[in-house]
Amino acid sequence: MQKKLSWVIVGTIFISFMLLMVILAFSIRGLGIKNAEEKAQIIADLVQDGLSAHMLSGTMDQREFFLKKISTAKGVEALWVVRSESVIKQFGKGFNNEIARDKIDEVTLNTGVVHKQNEESSHSAKLRITTPYVAKEHGSPNCMQCHHAKEGEVLGAISIVFDIGEVRTNGILTSLGILLLSIFIMLFVFIIINRSMQPLMELFNSITFVMNKAQEGDYSRRVRFSGHDKECHNVMFWINSLLDKLENTLNDIEVTVKKFLALSPNHQPDLLLDAQAIVHELSDIYQFKRTIEFDEDKEQVYRRIGSILQHDLGLKDFVLIESGKEAINPTIVFDAATHKRTVDPTCRALRTKQAVYSDQFKNICESCDSCAHHLCIPYLISSDFELLLSIWTQTPEELEHTKEQLPKIQNYIDAARPELVSKNLTEILKVSSTTDALTGLYNRKYLDEYIEKALSQAKRNGIKYGILMIDIDFFKMVNDTYGHDVGDKAIKVLARILKDNIREADTAFRFGGEEFLVLLYECEEEMVTHIAEKIRLAFEKAAIQSNNGATFYKTLSVGASIFPIDSDSLWKCIKFADIALYNAKDNGRNCVKRFDGSMVESQELKNDF
Fold it and tell me: Does position 291 have pLDDT exceeding 80, yes or no?
């Protein structure tokens, strides 16, 4: 680069000198020709004056000596005088046949204009000038005294041939001298420029090397300069200081981000581009976290995670599974599988809490033997709550690409973890406040919320509810005989039988003590007593174990009513079912009684309903 720049500068100066030489050469040549022309004019005037003097003195016959003497002047190669036709007629042709020798003489005599002509070859250079003599009546001498001519008539001409080869030679020699001097000056300038630019080029080459490395992502290189130039040292210091700050800042960003953000193992080698990607990812995660803070429940958060996995990370075939402590009751909470997938409690990832990849070992997971390329990643959300991401791919390359996405997935799961824990705790608290701890059935508190929602829906859509009020016969005897813990067992048995014998749309409540309430959704009248009998018989056959290992059996009494057949108030229908329950107890227990109006004992009681 240094030599190239030096040659450009020297070459520019050299070309400038060459142009000046050419201009100078042409100037010297032009000046020589101009001097020859002026000399020719002087000689022409001298010849004219001499011939006029000879004519006035009557010595025209001696003019030949005069002309020969002038023709020997330096640089004059030839000289001759030409007479016009009028002069030839008056005085004759003169010596040496003083008539027009060529067309130039003829043209000059006819036009009265000076004619100039250059003749140059490789060996010689000549300048021919033919000057006319024009008759003048006024002035000294008066041409009309001797010539029979008119004012302005051409009387003759003088042709002079000059040898300008010496002028050309002098121009060439001068140009060569200037050329040699220019070459010497160019070499001198080249040496000076080369030495002067050496420190700058050393600095420039070092900067170029460092910048190329920075372009490749290596910010560890620094500019070096071994010279003594103060300005160059300042430039080196400024650039290196900037690179130090940039590298330290980027490394600090990476170290800081690693504390709370998982980075891909093959992230950008360029620290600057890597920092840009990290900032974008942090922005996306922050936006995601701010969004899920206002989601209502875990299910909505799961949908957002699934959407990111699908649309942002490009996963095509996967499910997101929620499981409890010790992998109990795993449930698919987001399904983006291309085929129907089932949750296998024996899943290796659920059991070991370790990531499982299909390329780790052949048939590594028995529950995924049929899946050629898959991976299962467990994410611990809390001590008793975790998520499992199961992904299936078509090719080993797609599997590897999915592995590269795992750090990003980890970041989103980490961002969602506090919200999932919070929303899961909220759900647990809500369930615990609305659920009976002993039986797992809804409690009386939840009944108030349920009826408020169910009543408006039932009235709007004309839905019927079968209502069962259930009570264990002689339950106090169980507590007195076997103890309250055995009594709790009897209540649990009844709760299990209720769950097993009602539909998913139906709802069971622990109404209080040993009394239970069941709301049968969209149930016809004949089905109400059928279900009640089914529950009664199932409990009658269920063995209850006492503390000493012995078993015993108990019976139920059931009261039934139907909303809105018995009343357009759901609470009244519950009361009617309770009246029917007491009627069943009054009629021997272990039976089902359908409410009717006759069960109301007094008019006053009727008026209450």
Answer: yes
d(CA 190, CA 104): 54
Report d(CA 469, CA 326) in Å as an integer: 37
Any domain includes 188: no
| Final residue in a domain of this structure, among 169, 187, 210 | 169
Query: pLDDT by residue (tens digit) across 90-115?
Result: 777 676 667 788 888 788 888 888 88
Closest of 413, 554, 548 to residue 472, by C-alpha? 554
Same domain for 483 and 420: no
Neighbours of 158 (CB within 10 A): 25
Whether residues 6 and 55 share a domain: the answer is yes
Identity at 262, one-letter amino acid code: A
The verdict on 486 and 603 lying in the same domain is: yes
Whether 192 maps to a domain, the answer reads: no
CATH of the domain at 129: 3.30.450.20
Catalytic residues: 514
Measure the CA dihedral 416/421/426/430, to 10°: 120
pLDDT in tens, 505-556: 899 999 888 899 999 988 888 899 999 999 999 999 999 988 888 899 999 9
DSSP class per residue in 340-357: -----TT-HHHHH-S-EE
Domain hosting 363: range is 295-431
Question: 263-295: buried (b, 16+ CB within 10 Å) or exposed (e) per residue?
Answer: bbeebeebbbebbeebeebeebbeebeeebeeb
Q: Which residue has the higher pLDDT, 372 or 206?
A: 206
Q: Examine the pLDDT at 141 and tell me if it is beyond 90.
A: no
Q: Which helix (H) or strand (E) holds 301?
A: helix 298-307
Distance CA(262)–CA(307), nearest Å, equals 20
- pLDDT above 70 for 139: no
Residues 20 and 159 in one domain: yes
> At which of 405, 431, 457 does a domain end?
431
Dist CA 397 CA 1 (whole Å)? 46
Stretch 123-146: mean pLDDT, rounded?
Answer: 73
Q: Is 226 part of a structural domain of the chain? A: no
H or E, element range at 390? strand 385-393
How many of the other CB atoms lie within 10 Å of CB of 153? 18
Q: How many domains does the chain have?
A: 3
